[in-house]
Description:
The structure holds 2 protein chains of 2 kinds.
Chain A: H1 3-9, H2 11-36, H3 40-61, H4 66-90, H5 95-119, H6 141-160, H7 162-170, H8 172-177, H9 182-201, H10 206-223, H11 227-251, H12 257-275, H13 281-310
Chain B: E1 6-15, E2 18-28, E3 33-37, H1 44-51, E4 59-64, E5 76-79, H2 93-98, H3 102-105, H4 113-125, H5 141-154, E6 159-163, H6 171-186, E7 190-194, H7 201-204, E8 207-212, E9 214-220, H8 221-224, H9 227-234, E10 238-243, E11 246-251
Parallel strand pairs in B: 3-7, 3-8, 5-6, 6-7
Antiparallel strand pairs in B: 1-2, 1-4, 8-9, 10-11
Helix pairs in contact in B: 4-5
Amino acid sequence: MSDWMTVFADPNVQWILFGCMLLGLSSGVIGSFAYLRKQSLMGDALAHAALPGVCIAFMLSGSKSIALFLIGAAVAGTAATFGIGYITRHTRIKQDAALAIVLSTFFGLGIVLLTQIQHSGNGNQSGLDKFLFGQAATMMQNDVWIMAIISLVLIGISTLLFKEFKLLSFDPGFARGIGYPVAFLDQLIMFLLVVAVVAGIQAVGVVLMAALLITPAVSARYWTERLGFMVALSGMFGALSGLAGTFISSTGNNLPTGPLIVLVATAVFFFSVLAAPRRGILSKLLLRASARSQARQEQVILQAVRREQDR
Amino acid sequence: MPVHPLTIQNMTVAYEKKPVLRDISFQVPEGKLIGIVGPNGAGKSTLIKAALELIPKLSGDAAIYGKPYAEQRKLVGYVPQRESVDWDFPTNALDVVAMGRYGHLGWFKRPGGVEKKLAMACLAKVGMSEFAGRQISQLSGGQQQRIFLARALAQDAKLYFMDEPFVGVDAATEKAIITLLNELKMQGKTVLVVHHDLATVQEYFDWLMLLNVELIAFGPTEQTFTADKLQQAYGGKLTMLDRDGQSALITSGR
């Protein structure tokens, strides 16, 4: 058996591959809506805000339970979005500046709490420091099952509420006009983003999670003009990045999984920018070249006709 | 006594502390094509948005056919300003028009054959049938405006609100839109249009509202569209040129 085949034979690696694929899939799906709603940075803010939430959940409970982390991250994420909303509504500060302030405050608080935990001598704390950049190798079979459930819920809700999410992303004013509970749907999408972030903390870490939410969506946008197809494609790109990143990491010399997943997603993005039909750079160059040669041909014919007439 | 399509009573709306609309009261008669004009910042769009409960009111009431808007949504169609959305969204014209049916569909249900057929019919009414499958960013400004209009038609409402439907559209589209609005009127529907071109007011609308934070005048166009009242609404910003008995108007800004 060749070297890279042995990787797949290892049951531990199989679980990690499966887990990272699911993570990429679900964050790609929900990330599409965040991207289209121009909330790309919001994903980043939510991911950074999750850190203090998770730390506090750990400090209060003393255990590394995903359910508690989810609650902690959701509370912190809600506090962060509320903070951003409050600042933009009640001051002259624009949303980008508000995001930057809130994001760094929460992240700073998270780092302080993380250091505090590491010095507390709690025997259970090992691995918590991996939340910054993630460590996929620490994923157990149980973690992967939880991720499978999370993915199912995320994709299920996105499928059921596809029509509602679509209208909310395209024209929230009209959605409110026909009676959609826009504030509720807003919060729901935020919450789903938080769920995806928490699912990704272990493997990718809070710092890089935003890339996994947004990059597949941006890449998918290049290939299609249909929302349903874009969301599916974004999920596929995410899953592919998760698989390929984990695979490279497990064959290579101890390269970190999370950053590799993000780099693969970026590679997919660059490929999309170059090669996508219509929107891609190559296709635009080709189109321009063919338009130019056509214009030139027409000119040649025109001149020939004129010469003919002059004679 | 007939119920009015729209009744607004003592409505005041403010952004921050500055009132944008002050103590507005009026009743809209049924089956009329009504223009809403006034200078920049007069609160024209705000009036529509407050009536549709898109923005909060400080005080006052709005009733659609005698009941709160929340109970009457299906009677109301809305055409927002074209610039209010990002047209580089991954969808096509037919799909946007089908969104007009979302309010009738209820949760979870996807638009199916019935909705598609209705959306196609609405596209045909605005002369956009051949663009049904076109990606919306590849439509011209006028075509995008027609798509929004078709979406409002798909809502199959009795009372329509349109926010500046004539902004940035070519002459052909403007003509197509006004023909369509007149058809709606013939069907007994009521249409309120935020408008800024005083030159076409007399030609387009049978009723007119002059607005400048306060309600200046509201009534049949021939009674409302007078030099006196326009001066009142636009203040010094209006220059009137009397030419051959016909008044041509020049406003600064739209």
